[in-house]
């Protein structure tokens, strides 16, 4: 007999909502935690998250609340889908609210500001006894909401977590695969955001598909090289949460990170772009943290350096991209990690 779970999803933005609804449609009871009273009431009455996913019907088994305590009460599985910069302030409230047996899964594709902490590291620090995992893959929330077949990876050191989350989420239109490489899976999700900004800049400048293909391949080499230094398995980057997510985010106008790059390439100032965005583009935060960490570890990341120069060193976009594209050092074009 199928186990029925009580699940909390923390963060009522586009991804939290769509993941919560998949789980509810699979027959489980879901509580979605968000901070906006009006939106919670609308979700419960109209069965729609009109701010983030208008027109997407939500299951009766999904209930929205602005009480964190109510959302996690009796939950045996807790998903966290808030931006990386708010992740710790949310999860550090959980130890006094959930049992040590509850599984806690990060959906966030960001890095904590002020250091270089991954979401799984924050979970381990704040919830040392709970089983934990991360979910990541080529998962544009709005496409999942439209029913396009999508796939994602649940990564955990615990095989019972990967099995449980697979069974919870897997369905005809959302396929779940498992990995034990947590760092590799979450670094793929966080780092590709930076390259999606660069791809958006390239699109605004009229790069051809050949050029974008070269950019993507070099991005893959660069991000894998960095991730291996942090203990990730390079082969993870050949899968869904690596090249799969890099491809979708670097080529889709639905990606918020790509949209930021597109606007930058058209000459809009970053502050102006961010002031008018109502959803998170994690790549902006990740860029500075990644550059500092790569520099301190001595990992060459010319694409990251180039984007950083455009955003924070007042360099001309065309000049930087021209110099990035004409680099000839062999290590930038090889996928094999040396
Ligand atoms: N949208 C996608 O397609 C997608 C897919 C996969 C992963 N992700 C990742 O999931 C995470 C969330 O993304 P999203 O698309 O849902 O973002 P979003 O901008 O649509 O929503 C973020 C939500 O978090 C809430 N929030 C922000 N700070 C908070 C805080 N301190 N406390 C409580 N709530 C807070 C916001 O109010 C909003 O409801 C990001 O790391 C993103 O990279 C997104
Ligand atoms: O909209 P973005 O750029 O945050 O990307 C969303 C997902 O991470 C794509 O997998």
UniProtKB/TrEMBL annotation:
Alphabetic keyword roster: Cytoplasm, Lipid biosynthesis, Lipid metabolism, NAD, NADP, Nucleotide-binding, Oxidoreductase, Phospholipid biosynthesis, Phospholipid metabolism
Binding site for NADPH: 14-15, 35, 52, 109, 141, 256, 280, 282
Cross-referenced Pfam families: NAD_Gly3P_dh_C (PF07479), NAD_Gly3P_dh_N (PF01210)
Active site (UniProt): 192 (proton acceptor)
A biological-process GO annotation: glycerol-3-phosphate biosynthetic process
Catalytic activity of the protein: sn-glycerol 3-phosphate + NAD(+) = dihydroxyacetone phosphate + NADH + H(+); sn-glycerol 3-phosphate + NADP(+) = dihydroxyacetone phosphate + NADPH + H(+)
Name of protein: Glycerol-3-phosphate dehydrogenase [NAD(P)+]
Top-rank lineage group of the source organism: Bacteria
Subcellular location: Cytoplasm
Organism in which the protein naturally occurs: Pseudohalioglobus lutimaris
One GO cellular component term: cytosol
UniProt GO MF annotations: glycerol-3-phosphate dehydrogenase (NAD+) activity; glycerol-3-phosphate dehydrogenase (NADP+) activity; NAD binding
List of residues binding sn-glycerol 3-phosphate: 109, 137, 192, 245, 255-257
Family: Belongs to the NAD-dependent glycerol-3-phosphate dehydrogenase family.
Positions bound to NAD(+): 11-16, 141, 256
Pathway the protein acts in: Membrane lipid metabolism; glycerophospholipid metabolism
HAMAP family, per the entry: NAD_Glyc3P_dehydrog
Residue stretches making up the Glycerol-3-phosphate dehydrogenase NAD-dependent N-terminal domain: 7-160
């Amino acid at each position: 007999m199928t186990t029925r779970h009580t699940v909390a999803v923390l963060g009522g933005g586009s991804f939290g909502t769509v993941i919560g609804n998949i789980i509810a449609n699979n027959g489980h009871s879901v509580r979605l935690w968000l901070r906006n009273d009006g939106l919670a009431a609308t979700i419960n009455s109209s069965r729609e998250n009109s701010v983030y996913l208008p027109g997407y019907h939500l299951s009766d088994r999904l209930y929205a609340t602005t009480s964190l305590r109510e959302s996690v009460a009796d939950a045996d599985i807790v998903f966290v889908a808030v931006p990386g910069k708010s992740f710790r302030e949310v999860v550090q409230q959980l130890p006094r609210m959930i049992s040590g047996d509850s599984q806690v899964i990060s959906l966030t594709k960001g890095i904590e500001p002020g250091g270089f902490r991954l979401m799984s590291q924050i979970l381990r620090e704040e919830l040392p006894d709970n089983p934990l995992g991360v979910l990541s893959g080529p998962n544009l929330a709005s496409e999942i909401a439209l029913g396009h077949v999508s796939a994602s990876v649940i990564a955990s050191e615990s095989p019972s977590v990967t099995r449980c989350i697979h069974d919870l989420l897997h369905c005809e239109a959302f396929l779940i695969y498992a990995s034990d490489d947590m760092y590799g899976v979450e670094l793929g999700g966080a780092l590709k955001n930076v390259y999606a900004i660069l791809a958006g800049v390239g699109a605004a400048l009229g790069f051809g598909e050949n050029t974008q293909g070269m950019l993507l391949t070099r991005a893959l080499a660069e991000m894998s090289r960095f991730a291996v230094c942090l203990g990730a398995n390079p082969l993870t980057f050949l899968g869904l949460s690596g090249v799969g997510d890099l491809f979708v985010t670097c080529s889709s106008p639905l990606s918020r990170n790509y949209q930021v790059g597109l606007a930058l390439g058209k000459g809009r100032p970053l502050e102006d772009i961010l002031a008018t965005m109502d959803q998170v583009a994690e790549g902006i935060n990740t860029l500075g943290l990644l550059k500092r960490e790569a520099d301190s570890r001595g990992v060459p990341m010319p694409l990251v350096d180039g984007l950083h120069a455009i955003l924070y060193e007042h360099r001309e976009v065309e000049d930087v991209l021209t110099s990035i594209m004409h680099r000839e050092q062999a290590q930038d074009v090889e996928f094999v990690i040396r």
